[in-house]
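ok so heres the complex, two chains, lmk if somethin looks off
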Amino acid sequence: MDITNTSAARLNGPPVDRDLAFEIEQFLYREARLLDEERYEDWLGLMAEDIHYWMPGIQARYRADKAEKISLSRMAYFDDDLDYLKKRVERALQTTAWAEDPPTRHFHMVGNIEVEPTERPNEWTVYSVVFNVRHRNEAEQLELTARRRDLIRRDESGDLKIARRFIQLQQTVLQAKNINTFL
Amino acid sequence: MSLLHPRSHQADNVEALRALVDPGQGWLDRSIFWDSDIYALELERIFARSWIFVAHDSQIPNVGDFLTTYVGEDAVIVARARDNQVHTFINSCSHRGNRVCFAEAGSARRFTCNFHGWSYGLDGALAGVTAEHLYKDNPTFDREKLGLHKARVESYGGMHFANFDPEAPSLADYLGDFRWYLDVLLDNDEGGIEFVDGNIKSRLKCNWKFPAENFIGDAYHATWTHSSALLALFGKAPRMHPDRSFQVNANGHGWEFGTDFIGNAATLGEPEIVDYLRDSEARFQERLGKMRSRMIGSLSSATVFPNLSFLAGHNTFRTWNPKGPTETELHTWVFLNKNAPESLKEKYRRGVMLTFSPAGVFEMDDGENFEHCTASNAGVVTRRRKLHTGLGLGSEIDHPELKGHVHSNQVNEANHRAFYQRWLDLMTAASWADVPAR
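and the predicted structre for the whole thing:
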């Protein structure tokens, strides 16, 4: 699976409904603000029960290499279900989470949002990019860029939920000591 | 300091180096975490002459498989050649010095330089030269001498190490008594271990020795630094037992551990992992004896000098690759018993990433510590005071079973001191003949 390889058929498909696209864009912007404000429990509320939140390790391999550049069986920064995400949030909210105090000043910018229909009427494939900067302590400034592919679902109550998130980090060597945020 | 001799007087002077590190009393001069001349000497005297871990057998199982990594700051290719042997050689063309392999892993028949097309075999030998007739009758063109600079490669339990010093002792002698301890992980089950595919890499702005010493012996930090993760995953801090835990070291390699069998493994929060260990306990004991079998998943951490660290129970190996005196590239792997059930492998792969990868709930507090321990030494006044590494002085004991130097109580800094003793031995030795067995 590779976010850079999307099927050619989609290039000419009709756009989804404008109101739906607007709703999903607003949903993703709100999600980014919740992360900026460290409202992690509210953020968890945007996840579907069956969420798969996946940020694989990226390998620099030759184009001719037949091995997959990204694989579910390889190591990943995140390969989480809801239970794992909850554990991460629980750690971040402890008063002894030393790396979170003083708090990181978060910045999540989301763009290039594309909404595509799926075979199910209440689910959409949503592409986006995220630019994240974490400012810490005096002069630390850690930048991450990633491309994302989400599966966004409207649940029975009418709320949008993130059911799959695939995050393709663009660094093969993470230029940071940690990832104390979500993308 | 002369511009012509960038290595400072201090760094090259044995007495000055001895004044920096006092392993007997546990005092460390902060300049060893900051000074660029000392760092340059570390690359020469430690990384260019020690056995450096480069690959596990399972990462390059077939002829042609390769990966790229580092020995100190030297970029190397590690490849399995047609003789089925693992070769390690410098990733830099003999002609103009360009890198010859840019992929981090893959399979190849040759490594061809992008610049003029010189190519090298899987054993590093020069295999082809573009328009070779141009070199006909050239008195300095000697194919045999123009291969890529090769390291010695030796292995233990499937772990391949490279060494660029022809004078260095064998890997077996270099590891010494520590091999007996490595068997706890490498040989607790028929078939040994394998690495999960993939290697998470990250950069920390810290001196490489802070994480290396942390893993060799810093049980002290575990319940404080990692309080938040322990509470989130485990509900409480696990208890360490001074009378039933140890620090052991040999030749500068060290392991701090409890004899609690499952302490580290339990903090992964995956009951299936603990069940597997418990169900296998009799088998482990048969292979390793009772004492070593109790180390398999216990509260513990370890470092093979200089820069290979690991956690039993959390099943992670990692190397701390120096990138200047204040920067380190961390390479992280997950390993498992080859014959463990597939479902268990998946639990380990995910569990280790949740805890001990850069996004892991344990690891993220470590990076913060290592970076600030390093950065504070920019201050010249700060550097005037030495660091205290004296916990557990006088704790060495005789033990009927455990090998090497044995200290009681894993909450100790005996292994730190052994690490810096080895560091000092190598830094002050003109050749391996001057390095004592420790």
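quick notes: Chain B touches chain A at residues 102-107, 196-206, 225, 227-229, 231-233, 269, 329, 332-334, 349-350, 353-354, 357-359, 361, 363-365, 367-368, 370-371 (CB under 8 Å). thats all i got rn
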